[in-house]
Amino acid sequence: QVQLVESGGDLVQAGGSLRLSCAASGSIFSILAMAWYRQAPGKQRELVAGFSNSGGTNYADSVKGRFTMSRDNAKNTVYLQMNSLKPEDTGVYYCNGVFKVGVGLTQNWGQGTQVTVSS
Question: 54: pLDDT confidence band, cut at 50, 70 and 90?
């Protein structure tokens, strides 16, 4: 069983910054991929940024140059540094991960953290 816990969401003014964290815990042998998604009210969940061990880090066009995803392997934690925030960045941000566990692979979601950007 793997658990993902996000934190760092808040209310911020446009142009401000936030740093989200996602900590993975449980019987993890290795992390194969992790990503940040977001869901705005009335919209579908969309990929914001993600990496896999077989490739680099990818970003949605809407956040390139403003958001940076990083990882701390020792803590099984990923971060999303969000700068120059815009009202359209508002939404619930979810962490997703694919992990190698004892008998195979598992994909898990966190509970989400709310980001609200005021104009």
Answer: confident
